[in-house]
Amino acid sequence: MNMRSFITPYKDRKPQIHRDAYVDFSARIIGDVVIEEGASIWPMAVLRADSAQIRVGRRAAVLDLALLEAPEKYPVLIEDEALISHRVVVHGAHIYSHVLVGIGAIVLDGAVVSRGSIIGAGSVVTAGAYIPPNSLVMGTPGKIIRETSEKERQDIILQIEELCIKSRDYKK
């Protein structure tokens, strides 16, 4: 099976994937999606940008079964070295650098998750919410529990580094 069979233009919107990015052959990349250098898109992730743009920054990772969708007027921006975990839904939101969105979390239209924050597994960041830098968010709806620790912020960077190494191995 050719990896390109899962990369789909929509009208005049065509995915742009940096040659040094890793996209698993089972991932679906649709429409106006930009995947920057060193980024990784893991098995069965879906990035659908048939209304607004999705941008995945340098060395950011979108893990297995995640769904990123950019509805009209709500682009998705995943900044450099952000980590979108397994089964996460990001719908029209802005995720800053060095953020971890935990397993099964949902981040909705117009939400902003600032640098160094962690969205706990299964949490929901409601539409239009602003999460300040270095916040730990838990629950449904998500509430700021406390500030993230320096160790937690360093662990995000270590996880990103590990995923970059693995993605290079998979790309070979």
Strand content: 35-45%
Mean pLDDT: 96
What are the segments in which pLDDT stays under 50 over at least 5 consecutive residues?
A: none
- Provide the structure class: mainly beta
Strand count, sense and barrel status of the largest sheet are: 12 strands, parallel
Quickly count the helices: 1
Helix content: 10-25%
Quick rundown:
The chain is mainly beta. The protein contains one helix and 20 strands.
Essential attributes:
twelve-stranded parallel beta sheet, 20 strands, 1 helix, mainly beta, globular, eight-stranded mixed beta sheet, 172 residues, 13% helix
Report what the structure shows.
This protein is mostly beta strands and 172 residues long. The chain contains one helix and 20 strands. Strands 1, 2, 4, 6, 8, 9, 11, 12, 14, 15, 17 and 18 form a twelve-stranded parallel sheet that branches. It has an eight-stranded mixed sheet with strand order 3-5-7-10-13-16-19-20. The longest helix is centred in the last third of the chain and has 22 residues. The chain starts with 6 loop residues before the first strand and ends with a helix. The mean pLDDT is 96.
